[in-house]
Amino acid sequence: MSWNDKLNDTRNQLRGLNKAIPDATRAFGGLGKAVKEGGVLDFKTKEFIALGIAVADRCEACIVLHIAALVKAGATRDEVGDVLAMTIQMGGGPSMMYAAKAMECFEELSAG
């Protein structure tokens, strides 16, 4: 499955969840908005942090959503690589395997 397909599937799954539990998903969305728009760090930096956590937690759906946000925010391959290197340093071998997936995802989604 391509990362574009994974992104579309993830978004469709979230739409289904939104229909099933709208109050909970709306509340979670509000938290995300407050965290991403508030504070002193810019949006892209916060997405880099989220990507590092997604890789460390081995969540492919999270990886594709945060990579998509980073591509939209103008992240470069070098910036993503730096975040992934730090994630590998903190998480070891398992993080390295998911960092490889994240870089593959970035390359596919940033290609157009």
From TrEMBL:
Residues 22-104 form the Carboxymuconolactone decarboxylase-like domain. The keyword Metal-binding does not apply. Gene3D superfamilies: AhpD-like. It holds the Pfam family CMD. InterPro entries: AhpD-like (IPR029032), AhpD_core (IPR004675), CMD-like (IPR003779). Keywords: Oxidoreductase, Peroxidase. One of its GO terms (molecular function) is peroxiredoxin activity. Transmembrane segments: none annotated. This is Alkylhydroperoxidase AhpD family core domain-containing protein. It comes from Shimia gijangensis. The lineage of its organism: Bacteria, Pseudomonadati, Pseudomonadota, Alphaproteobacteria, Rhodobacterales.
